[in-house]
Design goal:
Elements: H1 15-32, E1 36-37, E2 43-45, H2 46-53, H3 58-63, E3 66-68, E4 74-77, H4 82-91, H5 94-97, E5 101-110, E6 122-131, H6 136-153, E7 158-164, H7 171-183, H8 191-199, H9 202-206, H10 225-238, E8 245-246, E9 258-266, E10 273-279, H11 283-286, E11 294-300, H12 301-308, E12 318-323, H13 326-341, E13 345-348, H14 355-364, E14 369-373, H15 375-380, E15 382-387, E16 393-397, H16 401-408
Parallel strand pairs: 1-5, 7-8, 12-13, 12-14
Antiparallel strand pairs: 2-4, 3-4, 5-6, 6-11, 7-9, 9-10, 10-11, 14-15, 15-16
Helix pairs in contact: 1-6, 6-10
């Protein structure tokens, strides 16, 4: 017998209901902010993620599921959503027709990383990308929109950290200062960080192994006047609307970020980020488009659900329709369909089983009531309604049974 692949999982009710609840909650908030849904393909050209995400990132170096197809094309199963959104934005000529766009996506991502609590090789993300707006207001809007989603869903005890990574003017000086500092510690760095030191030293600060021990010790970035003004305005727009702290160690793990970055955290483990993002003003140009400002975020659906904890959800009451004879099968089936059309969760249809078998199934599926249609009931144009908790039962007219059941459930 085949078994589930490690790092992947089956999600049954009631857990699967939480995914639907968060998705619907996010859709409602995102639409109020003027975002439209973009459904991304699962497979893209591998080059898309290498160029956009960065050759030194863990995603590209060791986590991406990539393969060569029958046409000898190098493809990858999407590990994140932003590159696909930017590719769609460019390929569909939004740069000319409508350069200011606000998209959101909901879908599964795939990374070949070591499975652990809160981290799977297939996981769901909800993401949003605001393209074409360079104003600090766009950064603040994205952070507040994210807060609205997690708050509406009921996530508890989360904190918000923000930082600025500067731009091409101020970052080179910081990069060199960071290299000079970290070079003194090179022999103590993990193998990955020794490679990152020259290629992308900011990634060392994001390392789960080395990053924490450098907190408060590394040089701080001196922003250029433009970046400083941008970051100050972001903070001004957020004050009084959300609690946040500025964390100079917050750098994010992807190469394309610039200026504002942010992270929502819950819990005290190394996997405590439930959502994160930032500005990426240079990404679209690096992918062949014109210089276009953009800011976005991605939310880990499983992690947001975990941060909320167990919340009792009253089960939806359902009914079970039982037929006690061949002559009753068609009217019982019609009753099932009428109830469903009326919005009632309805089980039944095991008409080849006897009365005991059908009632046993009614209890197994958690039905609150059974509607029993036998030859005696059919002759009187009635239905027996049985309360499966108390055992009480009564006869009701077949013509009004749908309305009566709706009152009960």
């Amino acid at each position: 017998m085949s078994k589930l692949v490690r790092g992947f999982r089956d999600i049954f009710e009631p857990q699967s209901n939480l995914f639907t609840e968060l998705e619907n909650c996010a859709r409602g908030v995102l639409r109020r902010y003027g975002f439209s849904e973009l459904r991304l393909p699962t497979v893209e050209q591998k080059e898309l993620f290498v160029k956009s995400t960065g050759e030194t990132t863990d995603i590209v170096q060791k986590e991406m599921y990539s393969f060569e197809d029958a046409g000898h094309r190098q493809l990858a199963i999407r590990p994140e959503g932003t590159p696909g959104v930017v590719r769609a934005y460019l390929e569909n000529n939004f740069t000319q027709a409508a350069p200011v766009q606000k998209f959101y996506y909901i879908g599964n991502m795939f990374r070949a990383e070591r499975p652990q609590a809160g981290r799977y090789r297939e996981f769901e993300q909800i993401g949003a990308e605001s393209i074409g707006n360079s104003a600090p207001a766009a950064d603040a809007e994205m952070i507040l929109m994210l807060k609205d989603i997690v708050s509406a869903f009921g996530a508890k005890n989360y904190s918000v950290k923000i930082n600025s990574l500067g731009c091409d003017k101020c970052r080179p000086l910081y990069r060199q200062a960071l290299i000079d500092f970290l070079s003194q510690e090179k022999d103590t760095l993990c193998e990955n960080c020794q490679t990152r030191l020259e290629k992308n030293p900011l990634r060392v600060l994001d390392c789960k192994v080395d990053g924490p021990r450098f907190s408060g010790r590394v040089p701080t970035m001196t922003l250029c006047p433009e970046c400083q003004a941008h970051f100050e305005e972001v903070q001004c727009l957020l004050k009084g609307k959300i609690d946040f702290m500025v964390d100079p160690m917050l750098v994010r793990g992807l190469d394309y970020y610039s200026r504002t970055v942010f992270e929502f955290q819950a819990g005290d483990t190394s996997q405590n980020a439930i959502a994160a993002g930032g500005r990426y003003d240079g990404l679209i140009k690096s992918m062949g488009g014109p210089a276009t400002p953009a800011v976005g975020w991605a939310m880990g659906v499983e992690r947001v659900i975990a941060s909320r904890g167990e919340v009792p959800v009253p089960p939806q009451k359902s009914v079970y329709v039982a037929s006690l004879g061949p002559a009753c099968h068609e009217p019982a089936f019609n009753l099932m369909q009428a109830l469903r059309q009326a919005g009632v969760r309805t089980e039944g249809g095991l008409f080849d089983k006897n009365a005991k078998g059908q009632m046993k199934q009614a209890n197994r599926c958690g039905a609150a009531y059974a509607l029993i249609l036998g030859e005696d009931e059919l002759a009187k144009q009635e239905v027996t309604l049985k309360d499966l908790t108390s055992g009480e039962q009564k006869q009701l007219p077949l013509a009004t049974i749908v309305q009566e059941v709706k009152k009960l459930v």
